[in-house]
Amino acid sequence: MFNNSWIIFPTQPPIISNLPAAVDLSETVTVETLLYTLSVSDPSNDLVMCTVNSSSPTDAPFLIQLIPGTSNYGVYSRLVPLFDYNITDQYVLTIHCTDTKDITSGQFEINMLPNTVPFFLNIPASVTIATTTQIGTVVYTVLAADNETTNIEFSIASCSNCWFAIAETGQVILKTSILTTTTTVYEIRISVRDASLTSSTTKLSFIISGVNNQPTINNLPLTLNILESVAIGTAIFTLDVTEHDTDDTLNYVISYTPSSAAAKFQFDVSTKQLMLIQSLDFESGVIQYTIGFTVDDGSLTAGPSSLTIDVLDDNEAPVFTREMYYITDSENRNVGYSLPSALFTVTDADVGDSLTYSIASGDPLERFTINATSGILEFAIVYDIDDGRMPAVVNLTIMVTDTGGLSATTLVQVTLLDSNENQPIFISDTFEANIPNDYPVKSSIVSVSATDIDYTYNVIEYSLIDGDLQYFDVNEESWVYLIKSVAEFYNYTTLSVKIQAYSHGHRSYAYANILVSPALGDSLFNHTGNILWFTACVVAVVLIVIMCVFMVYRYIRYGYACSPKKWSLDCGVLRRGWQGLKNKLNEGTNTVRTKWKAWKISKNHIKKIATPKKVAFSPEKISIPKKSPPRTQGRCYHGICSKFLSWLPKCKRPVERIQVQPVAVTSDLPTPLTDTYSWTPWRNEWDIAPYV
After folding, report:
1. Which residues sit opposite 450 in a β-bridge?
2. Strand, coil or helix: 74
């Protein structure tokens, strides 16, 4: 079975398949040159970037860049690398290749090959010639050698109003008459070079005999290579001058090219030292200065001789153009979410330096990460500013580091806005309160407060939406208060309302149950309703007592509490009799006219069939026996009474029977109406019921 879950494969770092490696490089290289092609692949097919992470020695003049027209990275030597085998004979580069998630490292070695400079065998030297020497005379033969080749060439590197020439064989030939010269010492510089144009320059001095001696500058011309980071106040050159005539006073004339060099260098006549008085800057574009020295003794002059100063690039720290940057975004973002760019602007005077960003401080709990290449900040957690969990404003110190390890810092203020993701929450689902029924209107009863932990969207509006709204309301401080008197409730009545808490689109609900109880000192009979039901109860109790006394009396008086006859409706059926007839019969009267209620008598029930009418009876139809034998009727109670009077003793009752046939005098009664009536002597009454 397959489900819809994502399968997450672990990321794999880039692969550099041809490192470590090493190449040989001649120190004569001066142009940007491809030294090695890196073979880099990424199993995840991510974009890979390669840089020189570090070098030994530091600030090695190499760089990593894409080979034009390909997607491969190559190791290049920089333009004008100033290789010097005598200073550094090997460079070791640590190369990093990254796909922004993982980094792969490799080492690359560059072994420098020294260029053997041709060297002179017999100069520097001083040669004495007379002012009378003829033109074309070989005045000196320069000898030189090269360990790598025998193909060397000679040339005169410098001389003023040159009197001499040099042949390819090294012969120095006088080409101008010196008969009238006043120069006592004439100096030329001889240069020898091999096929690679590597040269060596050395001074050859001529002492002219027979003339006045002039001062001699011994260590010029000269070229010096100095780093731009040389400290101010450093003595970078000391002039060496020879004065043959000890009585002469030497004067010095210094020239500067370009003219701005006069502000950077100063010659101290007393110490004959050239001092640096202003910092050098390779990136300013002026990387070479020429300083000319002229020395005279009042009559003869030496020079001008030139000192050439080449300024070498030194690694300089990157610089942020602003001290503070600002980023604003919302909280509650996913892990890995990229915040808006701070738009860092960083300057680095060193061309080709790669910059790496990092968080230096301000994030001790590591809630943020930063892309080392782009400087884009990302969330390392789900950032939540609600309820004070995390600060809404964070100040991060961002560091940028160049290839040489120099760095700079700036501040980034990250402001995170509330996203309103929480709803208000009541402190309880149900609130309970108890108030007396004389509680004042407009008085607060119970606080039904809720909280919204959103950082800014946390204003809550309260309202009542259901229940006994006619008695209560809620204010903006969450207090439920009374708006109508509850004096009518005096028997512990519970009133309820439903409360709504609303906050910026989110709603929550709770309930408040308020028990209304009688006020302290309130009497039961302070309320008309209580008086009425209490009176009704008293009357009912009195009637029950009277009935009980009456039944006891009947039992004592007659021996039973209820009628002994067998009615189908038990004792609860109303017995109806012809009271007038009973009275007349007891008195022996033959003719009776009285009121009565007509009944239709059946076996199981009595049903009323007519309203009271006058009835006439025929005396001759009534037969009353003088003495009738008593009949035993069982217990003295029947029907419903048996449920309450089972404790009464058994008794025997005599029953007499007569037949009565009344004759109705009205047309709405049946004629004749015949039935059997039972006479009970001890009750002195008739029972209108079928005799069984």
Report:
1. 426
2. strand
Q: What's the alpha-carbon Rg for the chain, to the nearest Å?
A: 67
Bond preceding residue 57 cis, omega within 30 of 0: yes
Q: Report d(CA 511, CA 362) in Å as an integer.
A: 46
Amino acid at the residue 103 = I
115 Cβ neighbours under 8 A, 6+ residues apart: 26, 27, 28, 85, 148, 196, 198
Phi and psi angles of residue 552, each rounded to the nearest 5 degrees, phi first:
-60, -40
Tell me, what's the pLDDT at 240?
92
E strands in 38-102: 40-41, 49-56, 62-66, 73-77, 90-98
Report how far residue 163's alpha carbon sits from residue 170's, in angstroms, rounded to the nearest whole number: 16
- Contact criterion met (CB below 8 Å) for 566 and 587: no
Residue 640, helix vs strand vs coil: helix
Quick one: CA dihedral 474, 479, 483, 485, positive or negative?
positive
What secondary structure letter does DSSP report for 121? S
Domains of the chain are 15-113 (2.60.40.60), 119-209 (2.60.40.60), 216-310 (2.60.40.60), 319-417 (2.60.40.60), 425-518 (2.60.40.60)
Q: How far apart are CA 471 and CA 514, in angstroms?
A: 11
Edge-first strand order for the sheet with 49-56 is 21-26, 103-113, 90-98, 49-56
- In this predicted structure, what is the pLDDT of residue 517? 87
Owner of token pair 């043959």:
244
Distances (CA, A) of 667 to 610, 636, 661, 670: 12, 40, 16, 8
pLDDT confidence of residue 148:
61
Map tokens 């001499």 to a residue.
164
In whole angstroms, give the CA distance from residue 403 to residue 350. 9
Amino acid at 687: D
Beta bridge partners of 338: 378
For the chain, what is the total number of helices (H) and then of strands (E)?
A: 2, 52
Q: Name the stretches of the chain with pLDDT < 70.
A: 1-10, 147-150, 180, 195-198, 212-213, 245-247, 299, 387, 421, 453-457, 520-528, 559-692
Cβ atoms of 96 and 65 closer than 8 Å: no
Supply the pTM of this predicted model: 0.33
The pair of structure tokens assigned to 642 is 């048996």
Query: Rounded CA gap, 673 and 347, in Å?
Result: 136
Residue 48's alpha-carbon distances to 74, 99, 108, 279, 336, in angstroms, are 13, 5, 18, 40, 20
Q: Are 156 and 226 in contact (CB under 8 A)?
A: no
CA 627, 633, 636, 638 dihedral sign is negative
